[in-house]
């Protein structure tokens, strides 16, 4: 909460009964450094845990802050964010409607309900029907906006609660004397078309749905209705089209993904290593300008080459495992091209790439492995805590972090003073400059003055520039 001014802190914490709001704000500001304190206060007011912050982070990037706050305020998980990611064609261009549908969701069921719901339903009725759904059942009751009409008691039995009466032109059928009637909105009647059986104005409802004339069974009517709606339901076509590229990705796509990954690996390796190597070599190594530039080029090339090779090997192994699962095992692969076909594929591909590329020792490789190891360990602990494993789930990060910092710094200082040769050379050089050279001074007062760069930084910070 230290980054919030007093007004935002009060707004976040007023009338709260726990520390959930403060923890939410802290998590939110750590994950999204560019967001203002006011947004954090609005999102986390009344929060019971960290989930509103997680939901905000998982929300679609093109949603503005107000929509994300409306979606995720008091969320209990990231389910609202997952819900709005679903393809619902009738409200695809209406983010506010999707937010109204998915706000407070505990699963993606509201979106599934909306996809199953009648396409003829307007936006307001769709949201009323599905926003609190725990399954697709509410939409299954309505079926393509069909309304069973008869006695009042029958309406209450068969019409979902809060659904309005049929309005506008409709096509009615199923008219046994016992008042079992079905009415279709006219646009939905026109929706059920096919090249083989084009509806005509004089067609009966039974003919329209491919039923025997005079069919009275409600179950048969519903099945036929749902089957015909499935043929032409726009949302279901969207879902199918969205799934097809992931299922039918060709080998050409896999090769292109590998080549693109190799390019991105070399690009990122150069981008990261070149400035780092230049600073470290020019500051801490001796030699001519030519020798220093050669060192920068050598380190940058090695980093770029290895990162490009690793990405290529990783994606190639994923492609092989994907083909094996699809063709040798005959199993469906739902993930996109270039992605793991099963959760363990990533570990296998990463292990093979790690052995082939990073398994050869060099200062660059060792530095990268050490960099990843510390972050991977932290991530593993977070996963174990999130899944409820003890003792990880029993402690908060903010409580454990001071202990981790204490142990790490105690250990590294003991190693430096007692076993310095076991430390990485670059770390050892840095520590020698900090702790050994500070014990010797030759030039009097000059040795105790800050450098010009440090002085400039302090002045700029003081002036708040």
Automatic annotation (TrEMBL):
Q: Any idea what this protein is called?
A: J domain-containing protein
Q: Which GO terms describe its cellular component?
A: peroxisomal membrane
Q: Which SUPFAM superfamilies match?
A: Chaperone J-domain
Which domain of life does this protein belong to? Eukaryota
Instruction: Give the originating organism.
Output: Phytophthora ramorum (Sudden oak death agent)
- For this protein, the parts annotated as crossing the membrane are none
What PANTHER family does the annotation carry? PEROXISOMAL MEMBRANE PROTEIN 4 (PTHR15460)
The region annotated as signal peptide is none
InterPro entries, per the entry: DnaJ_domain, J_dom_sf, Pmp4
């Amino acid at each position: 909460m230290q980054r919030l001014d007093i007004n935002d802190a009060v707004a976040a914490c007023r009338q709260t009964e726990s520390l959930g709001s403060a923890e939410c704000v802290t998590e939110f500001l750590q994950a999204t450094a560019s967001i203002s304190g006011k947004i954090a206060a609005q999102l986390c007011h009344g929060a019971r845990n960290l989930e509103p912050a997680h939901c905000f982070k998982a929300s679609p990037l093109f949603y503005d802050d107000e929509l994300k706050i409306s979606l995720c305020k008091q969320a209990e998980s990231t389910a609202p964010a997952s819900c709005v990611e679903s393809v619902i064609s009738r409200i695809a261009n209406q983010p506010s409607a999707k937010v109204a549908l998915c706000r407070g969701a505990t699963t993606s069921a509201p979106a599934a309900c909306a996809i199953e719901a009648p396409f003829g339903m307007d936006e307001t009725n769709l949201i009323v029907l599905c926003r609190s759904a725990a399954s697709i059942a509410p939409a299954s009751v309505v079926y393509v906006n069909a309304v069973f009409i008869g006695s009042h008691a029958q309406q209450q039995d068969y019409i979902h609660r809060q659904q309005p009466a049929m309005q506008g032109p409709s096509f009615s059928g199923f008219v046994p004397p016992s008042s079992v009637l079905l009415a279709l909105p006219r646009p939905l009647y026109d929706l059920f078309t096919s090249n083989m059986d084009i509806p005509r104005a004089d067609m009966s409802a039974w003919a329209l749905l491919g039923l025997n004339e005079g069919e009275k069974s409600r179950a048969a009517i519903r099945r036929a209705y749902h089957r015909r709606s499935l043929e032409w339901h726009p949302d279901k076509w969207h879902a199918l089209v969205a799934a097809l590229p992931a299922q039918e990705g060709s080998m050409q796509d896999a090769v292109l993904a590998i080549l693109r990954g190799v390019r991105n690996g070399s690009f990122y390796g150069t981008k990261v290593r070149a400035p780092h190597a230049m600073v470290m070599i020019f500051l801490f190594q001796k030699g001519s300008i030519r020798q220093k530039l050669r060192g920068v080029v050598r380190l940058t090339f090695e980093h770029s080459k290895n990162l490009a090779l690793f990405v290529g090997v990783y994606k190639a192994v994923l492609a092989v495992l994907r083909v094996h699962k699809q063709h040798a095992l005959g199993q469906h692969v739902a993930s996109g091209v270039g992605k793991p076909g099963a959760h363990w594929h990533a570990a296998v591909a990463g292990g093979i790439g790690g052995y082939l590329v990073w398994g050869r020792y060099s200062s660059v490789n060792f530095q990268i492995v050490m960099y990843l190891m510390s972050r991977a360990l932290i991530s593993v602990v977070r996963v174990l805590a999130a899944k409820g494993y003890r003792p990880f789930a029993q402690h908060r990060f903010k409580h454990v972090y001071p202990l981790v910092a204490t142990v790490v710094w105690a250990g590294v200082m003991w190693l430096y003073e007692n076993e310095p040769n076991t430390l990485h050379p670059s770390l050892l050089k840095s520590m020698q400059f900090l702790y050994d050279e500070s014990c010797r001074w030759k030039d009097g007062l000059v040795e105790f003055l800050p450098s010009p760069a440090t002085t400039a930084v302090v002045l700029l910070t003081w002036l708040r520039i």
